[in-house]
Each structure stands twice: as structure tokens, then as C-alpha cells.
Design brief:
This protein is of the alpha+beta class. Helices cover 18% and strands 27% of the residues. It contains five helices and 13 strands. The strands form four sheets. The chain has a five-stranded antiparallel β-sheet with strand order 1-2-13-9-3. A four-stranded mixed β-sheet has the order 8-12-11-10. The two termini are 30 Å apart.
């Protein structure tokens, strides 16, 4: 039975498959690393519940928008390689992703998006003190907003690739954007409960960025087919997404139209 947000508990098999997917793609040693690591100390994620989002209006919006993404030549290799959720070695996790029947013509893939709940705390690293310190609390509930209204790039924060919907293929990257749930320097992230979305995303024809070009920070839409961002005025056809694929870094996938991303599963987990 659906709850007020359109969520349905999908049961034990999907929960088990999602746990195996997360275990395979997690990089425990990288949890808490970097300037966006939020001072996290845990080394694993234990899935507690997986719910399917059955908001029909949001899914129809996604279907309409994804069908407008031009077909890609599936016989040609991808400029950035395969998305990790498509090359899973665990059979149960692989069967789960296969069951979603993702549309390769639209370069539809399964990605992750970490999202905080109300009262989550964003931590910042103090270079002066050389410690992590708790910062401000989230005043609203982004999870509830996404489930009811979908993703909206107009209210997205500006990142390295501009204002868009940022997705990842590794849970350790998405987990840090679910933020912390403690506000004391003595507290640990172990035992905290957080969540991420497993999303369908229609990447279409991506612009592949191999470095953090400063011009990309101002993006509000993908570059054109010739690689021009909005700094260069042109009338060329626009690409459909941006993939950040700098070597030895997490790959990130950015879409600038919220309807190109559907938050299909809400995964609730404990940090262990």
C-alpha cells in the first residue's frame, strides 16, 4: 500500500539486491575524505528499507522528457566508459538493475543522489583549527520535496559544473550529501541513519569534462555539440547532460532539467 508520498515497500529481494549493489560499489577508505567529506568516520552502509516511488505524475513527466532525448548510437563505445551500475559482478545486484529495463537508446542509467532530511547538519573543515566542525542545520525536508515535486534545477546549489541535478555511481559519494545527523564535535557518524535515491537518468549525449574548467561553474544547461558553454553565444544544438570524468576522481553526472531524472527508489540505511 502506498503512503502519503507515494512510496511502496518493495520487499526483501530488492532490499538484498540493493545492499549487494551498495557493497560492491562502496569504497570504504574514501568515506569522509575530501573537503565535502563532512568528517564522517563510518566505513559501511547497512540498508534498512527500500521503497519504490509510485508518484505517477512525476514518472509521466520523466517519460515525456526522456523520450525527447535523441537516440544515441548504442554500437559506439561511450566517451566515458560504462556506468558502474551496469557492470555489476554480483548476480543478484545485476538482476535487479536488469529488471528495470533501462533504455539504452536514451543512455538511460541507474545513478544515486544523496539527500538530507530536515535537521541534518552540514559539517565544514576548519583549516585554522584543522578539525571538522558542525555547521548549519537543514530547515526543511528535501526528501519529502523531491518525492512530491521531483527534482528542480532552478533551486539547485551551484557546484563545479554549475546549477544542476548531481548524481553519482558510487554510494560513498552520494552518502556525504545526505549530510550528518549530529551537531557535536565529539559525535561520530557511526549509527546515524540517512538516505539516498536510486534514480533513472536519461543522459542522452553527454558533454564529457576531464577537468574542472572554471567556465563550467556557470552552466545552467549542457554545452552545445561543439563544446561551447553559455560564455560563448551560439545557436548550435545543445547536448543533454554533463559527465565529469577526471582521472582518479569520482565521476559525476549532471542533468540540468529535473524531469530527466526520476527518483525511483528511496534507500534508507544506517552508517556502520
Amino acid at each position: 500500500m502506498r503512503d502519503e508520498l507515494g512510496l511502496v515497500d518493495v520487499g526483501a529481494w530488492v532490499l538484498s539486491a540493493v545492499q549487494k549493489l551498495i557493497d560492491e560499489l562502496l569504497q570504504p577508505k574514501l568515506i569522509g575524505s575530501g573537503m565535502d567529506g563532512n568528517g564522517m568516520q563510518h566505513r559501511g552502509l547497512r540498508v534498512l528499507k527500500v521503497s519504490r516511488n509510485e508518484n505517477r505524475h512525476l514518472y509521466e513527466r520523466y517519460q515525456y522528457r526522456s523520450q525527447r532525448v535523441p537516440d544515441v548510437d548504442t554500437s559506439r563505445p561511450r566517451e566515458f566508459g560504462e556506468v558502474l551500475t551496469q557492470t555489476l559482478k554480483n548476480e543478484e545486484a545485476h538482476q535487479f538493475v536488469t529488471s528495470l529495463r533501462l533504455d539504452s537508446r536514451k543512455r538511460e542509467v541507474l545513478l544515486m543522489h544523496g539527500t538530507p532530511r530536515a535537521n541534518a547538519v552540514s559539517w565544514r573543515y576548519s583549516k585554522y583549527k584543522q578539525i571538522w566542525e558542525p555547521g548549519s542545520k537543514v530547515s526543511h525536508d528535501p526528501v519529502r520535496a523531491i518525492l512530491k515535486q521531483g527534482f528542480d534545477a532552478r533551486v539547485a546549489g551551484s557546484g563545479m559544473l554549475g546549477r544542476g541535478i548531481y548524481c553519482a555511481e558510487r554510494p560513498c559519494k552520494s552518502d556525504r550529501y545526505a549530510l550528518r545527523y549530529s551537531a557535536s564535535e565529539e559525535d561520530t557518524s557511526v549509527g546515524e541513519r540517512a538516505q539516498l535515491f536510486l534514480c533513472r537518468a536519461a543522459l542522452g549525449r553527454p558533454h564529457v569534462a576531464l577537468d574542472g574548467n572554471p567556465g563550467l561553474r556557470e552552466l545552467r544547461r549542457p554545452p552545445c555539440v561543439r563544446g561551447h558553454s553559455d560564455e560563448f553565444k551560439c545557436d548550435h544544438e545543445r547536448l543533454d547532460s554533463v559527465v565529469f570524468a577526471k582521472p582518479r576522481k569520482y565521476r559525476e553526472f549532471v542533468l540540468y532539467d529535473g524531469d530527466q531524472v526520476f527518483p525511483e527508489f528511496l534507500v534508507e540505511y544506517e552508517r556502520v
